[in-house]
Amino acid sequence: MKIKQCLGAGLGLAIVLSFASVAEARGTGAGTGYTPAKDGTYCSTKLRAQDAKAQINLREGPGTTFKARHYGISGDRVDFLSQNGDPKQWMSRKDKSGKVWYQVGFPTSRAYGWVRADFVQLPPVECRD
Fold first, then answer.
1. Which of 113, 123, 112, 77 minimizes the C-alpha distance to 93?
2. What is the pLDDT of residue 29?
3. pLDDT by residue (tens digit) across 19-77?
4. 5: helix, strand or coil
5. What Cα–Cα distance (Å) separates residue 69 from each residue in 47, 50, 60, 94, 125?
6. CA distance 71 to 94
7. What pTM, to 2 d.p., does this model score?
8. pLDDT range class, residue 127, cuts 50, 70, 90
9. Distance in angstroms (rounded) separating the CA atoms of residues 39 and 17
10. The dihedral of CA 61, 28, 39, 59: what is its sign?
11. Is the peptide bond between 123 and the residue preceding it cis, with omega within 30 degrees of 0?
12. How confident is the model at residue 8 (pLDDT cuts 50, 70, 90)?
């Protein structure tokens, strides 16, 4: 099952479920080389954690079984990567336990990968048209 995050003017956030297969924004899902202009990002947010110094893992795929390739800390800015070139649809997946993960990119370090939804601030801090 695929999950798409959609924004509606004045309507807040809505989660739309889809069973269609879609291409991932960035191949296998983690690495370096992310750039907002090239990747068509639209919405930015911040990482969050109860412990401000905690390392938030950026994983190769949507789940804790995937290798952590990079990390961020609470307050770091990240961009939601778009799905199928549509910047209003964010790359997201559910893991085997039903937790939602987003594919995000760090504009400063250019790293990208998957972060569990409870570690990102929602609604986004900024969305650009």
1. 113
2. 64
3. 222 223 455 567 777 777 676 667 899 999 999 889 999 999 999 999 999 999 999 99
4. strand
5. 16, 22, 7, 19, 25
6. 20
7. 0.73
8. confident
9. 23
10. positive
11. yes
12. very low
Mean pLDDT (the chain, rounded) = 76
| Distance from C-alpha of 119 to C-alpha of 50, rounded to nearest angstrom | 9
31 to 49, 60, 69, 92, 103: CA distances (angstroms): 22, 8, 7, 17, 11
Residue 91 has which token pair?
């790359």
Q: Tokens 């807040």 identify what position? A: 12
Contact 33, 110 (CB under 8 A): yes
| 89-93 contacts, C-beta under 8 A, 24 or more apart | 89/4, 89/5, 89/6, 90/4, 90/5, 90/43, 91/24, 91/25, 92/2, 92/3, 92/4, 92/5, 92/62, 92/117, 93/2, 93/3, 93/61, 93/62
- Write out the two tokens for 88: 């209003």
